[in-house]
Write a structure and sequence with these properties.
Blueprint lengths: L1 E14 L4 H14 L3 E6 L1 E5 L10 E12 L1 H14 L14 E7 L4 E2 L4 E2 L8 H10 L24 E4 L22 E5 L3 H10 L4 E3 L2 H7 L3 H11 L4 E4 L5 H14 L3 E6 L2 H12 L4 E6 L2 H9 L4 E4 L1 H6 L4 H14 L6 E4 L5 H10 L3 E4 L1 H8 L2 H14 L7 H12 L1
Parallel strand pairs: 9-10, 9-16, 10-11, 11-12, 12-13, 13-14, 14-15, 15-16
Antiparallel strand pairs: 1-4, 1-5, 2-4, 3-4, 3-8, 6-7
Helix pairs in contact: 4-6, 7-8, 9-11, 11-12
The structure holds erythose-4-phosphate.
The site of erythose-4-phosphate has 11 residues, from helix 10.
Length: 415
Amino acid sequence: MEADPPTVAVIGLGASLGDRAATLEAAVRLLAVWPGIVVERCSRVYGSAPAGGVAGAAFLNAAVRVRTALSPEALAEGLRTIEARLGRRPTRRWADRVLDLDLLWMAGVTRRTAALQVPHARLRERAFALIPLVEVAPAARDPRSGARYADLPLARAALPAVGALPQPACPPPSRVVERRSGAATMKMFLDTANLDEIREGATWGIFDGVTTNPSLIAKEGRDFVDTIYQIANLIDGPVSAETVATDAPTMIKEGRLLAKVHPNVVVKVPLTIEGIKCCKALADDGIRVNVTLCFQAAQALYAAKAGATYISPFVGRLDDVSEDGMDLIAKIVQIYANYPDLQTQVLAASIRHPMHIVASALAGAHVCTAPFKVYKQLYSHPLTDKGNAAFLKDWESVPDRDIIGQVERFLAKRG
Ligand code: E4P
């Protein structure tokens, strides 16, 4: 029943009977609590004449953008249930109705069955569906032609807005796990160039990559390229290696060479304009880039437009100057979520303590990178140690404490 990864969809709302505005608002409230759906944005409410020559009353129309893990079929079924709950009874096609909910569009999805058509069959012909859709999902494209709905002439037709639906409270990105590039949860990178730490971390089996920077490399006093190569052989995941040139042409040269050291290498560039130029050139070559030293949301837009695989906002260094580093993570996650075509992942960097990691996950960061010391702090809790000690003490009173022997005998007996 679930779409993987969770994706963006737009639902069209229409009502022509009863208290139409109240019904639309009630529908949004039900959508907001529907399992598997997060309401992200609501359009204004538009008045439209009845279509198809059947209904007599004027319609109110609107659209709601949602993020959902449901399949199109499951989502459409949910919409039918919400319609019924709010009093819709079966009527002729295009007749007056208390509420009409249509799955207008779902990112990258096409369906053409008797039961369901996605994108909606008449989306491109109906200003009252198209205009609110473009309002809530300006980047939405027709999955077959790739054309942006916002570019259709009908999207600019004159249609009076007669009201607005209440916007959802700031949508919680953490309610639906964002799975860019197939990540099922927040990835965890080690932020170190120390081979011993990385070797030990690798035995935990949970680290997904490593980030380094010139300061971390300098601290180890080893050859840069050899260190990157060794790290890439220890952890099977992205390893960030940073350029140090300050002009784009030399950075590009460094980046292209670093990418040849090991397939795991991700080229790291600072968020300067030269870094952005370099990011674009490397991304166009198919080289993954981590754009680092991000301290404001607008910079993250540049990185995404330049095709960065990762943007690294520095949480701890912002906290150090009395700004809220985690607020920056939440903002960038939200901005990227507004534009589903962007594939840049938010990599929370400059992490100083376990709560930074928890807060990054709550904000919906795709990756966090932290020193090994912080990951060690993350698992330890005095109550875990105390509880475990008590379990082991009580276990001492059990007569036969040899679990392995017991299980082997049990299995042998059972055959
Ligand atoms: C990672 O990519 C960064 O280089 C690192 O997290 C910076 O952390 P710091 O602010 O603790 O130096």
